[in-house]
Amino acid sequence: MLILSKENILNLKKHPIVIAIDGTSASGKSTNSKLVAKALGYVYVDTGAMYRTFAWYCVQKHVDIHDDKAVAAACRKWKTSLECVEKNHLRVVHLLVEGYFPEKEIRTAEASAATSLIAAVPKVRDWMKKTQRDCIQFGNLVMEGRDIGTNVFPETDYKFYLDAKLEERSARRAADGVNENLAARDQRDSQRAAAPLMIALGAKVIDNSKMTSAETSGLLIAEIQKLFTANK
Fold first, then answer.
1. Distance (Å, rounded) from C-alpha 135 to C-alpha 55?
2. pLDDT in tens, 77-123
3. Considering the chain, what is the average pLDDT of its residues?
4. CA–CA distance from 158 to each of 2, 124, 179, 208 (Å)?
């Protein structure tokens, strides 16, 4: 259990912090980010869901997702807002489109396929960076993604990078009923021109190939506690 001093608690209230959890696909970012956020009482932000939301919007509006200019134009025009809600004892940030959060729709195969295309558009990543930084209005954050420590909140002292062997990550995806070429996905993420997937300077790298979620989140919390103490 993480126990904070009164001094640390007061400092966190005055200066909200961001715990950045980046990593490869199927490395356990979502599960462990939620566990850490719940343990700390922080707000959880799934940046991937934000990209999926825009991908869903583009599909609904019949935007040509292969046309970068059309995608960028749609990103400038859509009407969105942020809200923080509590779900299963966890505070979560949602990106609303005209007041609506397409929770189920963004998990469809069509939305998933569109996401990797729109996420590579520089203007989209610029918009997402600004919006994701705006999440700090809700307080201390655990934010998961692929460029949080390198691009969205590079100034944070709390940077982590989760990874696992390719065969292990592929097995995790298969167990979820998803057939995805993760090697190709890794290549696309790491080679894109805008905010490529990479290990942030100063990030703690955790290979959880042989670790359970409880072990991974426990290690994350232990490392965070060390940083809290060091940053008094």
1. 20
2. 999 999 999 999 999 999 999 999 999 999 988 998 899 899 999 99
3. 91
4. 16, 25, 33, 18
Return the CATH architecture of domain 16-214: 3-Layer(aba) Sandwich (3.40)
Give the span between the Cα atoms of 39 and 221, in whole angstroms.
Answer: 8
Q: Give the span between the Cα atoms of 168 and 210, in whole angstroms.
A: 9
Give residue limits of the domains in the chain.
16-214
Please give the C-alpha separations between residue 53 and each of 60, 61, 126, 136, 210, in angstroms, as whole numbers: 11, 12, 16, 20, 32
Backbone angles phi, psi at 185, to 5 degrees: -65, -45
C-alpha span between 122 and 158 (Å, rounded): 26
Other residues' Cβ atoms within 10 Å of the Cβ of residue 177: 6
Q: Which helix (H) or strand (E) holds 214?
A: helix 213-230
Q: What is the pLDDT of residues 10-69, one digit of tens each?
A: 444 567 999 999 999 889 999 999 999 999 999 999 999 999 999 999 999 999 999 999
Residue 218 pLDDT: 97
- Spatial distance between the Cα atoms of 83 and 134, rounded to a whole number of angstroms: 11
DSSP lists the bridge partners of residue 163 as 207
Cα-flanking dihedrals φ and ψ of residue 92, to 5°?
Answer: -130, 140
